[in-house]
Specification:
The protein contains twelve helices and 16 strands. It is of the alpha/beta class and 438 residues long. A six-stranded antiparallel β-sheet has the order 10-11-12-13-9-14. Strands 6-2-1-7-16 form a five-stranded parallel β-sheet, with helices on one face. A three-stranded antiparallel β-sheet has the order 3-5-4. The longest helix has 19 residues. It is globular and about 70 Å long. The structure holds flavin-adenine dinucleotide.
């Protein structure tokens, strides 16, 4: 029977271990806690939730609700254990974290095909069948091994995420498409101009705004080349106008005038359904971000696929490093969880499931195996591995699903949900599953 080494007993590693073992593989699961700990984990428990106890919405009309439904339909072991550990939280799935970890621990400990090693895994052998699921706080020695394997330019330690806005929610009347100095054949950027009065009000609001306090292990991690916008604004009222909001080379195509300042939006995905605010990494509180950005005429009613953030997070430059199967190129090493740039608890469980289905397909020689394009995991993993020069971690959201043409935005989500559920009918990611009675 094939053996696999799984590194990390967090959400992604535990989901993957159970899926792989249920499919008949012998699994060696390595978890370094409690001997070696991380700056955020507090216990030695498997599948510890490092922060909130919420897996977000359950209703099918929310992105996370649809995602969880997909995982449930495809037989996720951890989603099922999470449902059993549920605490009342309205339409959301919130759980008793101790009960959940105990249930995961039991499922792992009693599985005859899983051996749990309470040790740090430090090295990586490109020839050994391995799943790396060591999370955003991977140990230093393992990180060093990843460095050696893929090169230090392709592994990051810190997120500095600019907000990502849904294209459909922009007020296009207050935008113009243009590249700076009209370089290139097609305009890649959408520009959101601000007049003088709006610009200064915007800068003053940034200076006065509340920011999220950095965790002790994140202090001192800001880089001069990648400062939060509010920090740039604090350095002077004109600083942003000479930085990410500089209007030079962006003459308005209708008026012929150069705006006082602009926010540039650059496509975040190939379908151009999502755009990021270029250079707008920020530590502002989420509600405050929405409020301040709504001062920009084009963003007045903007809907955000994700808001800006800056925190400690080890992740790979997945588009450069991995194949669509989440395998590191030219190795037998697959990855899952936050390390791949899939951000969030449900995403960790989902990519654990996805990577295990890909490992099994690899073992049966089915290299053409894919998840349906219209599924949540198909869409999320496409985002992780499609070419993207500005790759940043991302939660699952509707903007990642294939584009559909409908009269209204409301209908659009309905069609995307329908397409997703239809695509999953009859799809069996684990044909070799042999459930084990525990
Ligand atoms: C501080 C912080 C707060 C977060 N809060 C939230 C939140 O509230 N909601 C949300 O949806 N997402 C949150 N996230 C993002 C993400 O969803 C979680 O980090 C999630 O737990 C990631 O799952 P994972 O399986 O990739 O990693 P983890 O759950 O962290 O699991 C990785 C495991 O690998 C182990 N490990 C690391 N290196 C080694 C090694 N060398 N050998 C053996 N074991 C090793 C670790 O001890 C850990 O148990 C947060 C992230 C951070 C850093």
């Amino acid at each position: 029977m094939p053996r696999i080494k799984v590194i990390g007993g967090g959400l992604s590693g535990c989901e993957a271990s159970l899926q792989l073992a249920d499919a008949g593989l012998d699994v060696d699961l390595w978890e370094m806690r409690p001997q070696v700990t991380t700056p955020a984990h507090k216990t030695g428990d498997l599948a510890e939730l490092v922060c909130s106890n919420s897996f977000k919405g359950l209703g099918l009309t929310s992105a996370h609700g649809l995602f969880k439904e997909e995982l449930r339909l495809m037989g996720s072991r951890l989603i099922s254990l999470a449902m059993e550990s549920r605490v009342p939280a309205g339409e959301s799935l919130a759980i008793d974290r101790a009960m959940f970890s105990a249930a995961v621990e039991k499922a792992i400990a009693t599985h005859p095909r899983i051996t749990l090693h309470r040790e740090e895994a430090a090295g990586l052998d490109p020839e050994e069948l391995t799943l790396v699921a060591s999370g955003p706080l991977s140990s230093d020695r393992l990180t060093q091994s990843l460095f050696t394997l893929i090169g230090s330019q392709r592994l990051y330690f810190f997120d500095s995420i600019a907000p990502v806005v849904e294209y459909d929610s922009l007020d296009l009347e207050h935008t113009f498409a243009k590249n700076r100095w009209e370089k290139g054949t097609e305009p890649d950027f959408i520009n959101c101009p601000l007049d003088k009065e709006t610009y200064f009000a915007f800068v003053d609001a940034l200076v006065a705004a509340d920011t999220v306090e950095a965790k002790p292990f994140e202090k001192g991690q800001l880089f001069e080349g990648c400062l939060p916008v509010e920090e740039m604004a604090r350095r002077g009222r004109e600083t942003l106008r000479y930085g990410p909001m500089r209007p030079i080379g962006l003459r308005h195509p209708v008026t012929g005038k150069t705006p006082f300042a602009v926010i540039q939006l650059r496509a975040e995905n190939r379908q151009r359904t999502l755009y990021n605010l270029v250079g707008f990494q920020t530590r502002l509180k989420w509600g405050t971000q929405k409020q301040i950005f709504s001062m920009v005429p084009a963003l007045k009613d903007a809907a955000y696929a994700r808001l800006g953030a800056m925190h400690r997070n080890t992740f790979l430059n997945s588009p450069q490093v991995m194949e669509p199967s989440l395998r590191i190129r030219n190795t037998r090493i697959f990855c899952a969880g936050q390390l791949t740039g899939a951000e969030g608890y449900t995403e960790a469980i989902g990519t654990g499931m996805y990577a295990s289905s890909m490992i099994l397909a690899h073992l049966r020689g089915d290299e053409g195996f894919t998840w349906p394009e219209a599924s949540c995991l198909g869409a999320l993993t496409r985002h992780l591995t499609d070419p993207n020069p500005d790759f940043q971690p991302m939660n699952f959201n509707f903007g990642l699903l294939p584009k559909v043409e409908t009269a209204s935005k409301k209908d659009k989500k309905g069609v995307q949900i329908e397409n997703c559920l239809k695509a999953l009918e009859g799809f069996r990611p684990f044909p070799e599953r042999v459930p084990v009675m525990t």
